[in-house]
Amino acid sequence: MKRDxxxxxxxxxxxxEFYAETVSRLTGQLYVMLGDLHEAQDVVQEAFVKxxxxxxxxxxxxxxxxxxxxxxxxxxxxxxxxRRRTAEAWRRSGAPPDVEGPGPGQVAMMxxxxxxxxxxxxxxxxxxLCDLTVEQISHETNLSAGTVKTHLARGRxxxxxxxxxxxxEEASGD
Length: 174
Prior knowledge:
mainly alpha, Arc Repressor Mutant, subunit A, elongated, 2 domains
């Protein structure tokens, strides 16, 4: 009685053993094919990830190594096509416009925001950058409206202290 091996999944142990036995060899083969070691490592790893979820196609009695190699090659070709299309799109649209870097005020603001607790920072961003109301923030964050208001008030207060202009204090202190 012949058993249908296409219905059997590789066990975790079999897959790990298969990986350990073939990953270096497959990476070396793809390196030769592609001419780029990092690209070969990436596509082989991605092929193994796909292989894990398609273990029926990795029949231990069949040619699982060939399957991984073919998938890795196809992934590399897809990446080449994507890069080529991206380069063509950049050529068609021209170089991106020059963007001025952040000014001292923006740097100071980001520095001050990083010093706030994450939930206050998130609440301030949702309110001032995303233009959400207290109710909308409450719904999105699963916080009560009162808690959102507290985060906004404390966050604004903390920012006010951190963003005081020392020149203004000197001028008012004269």
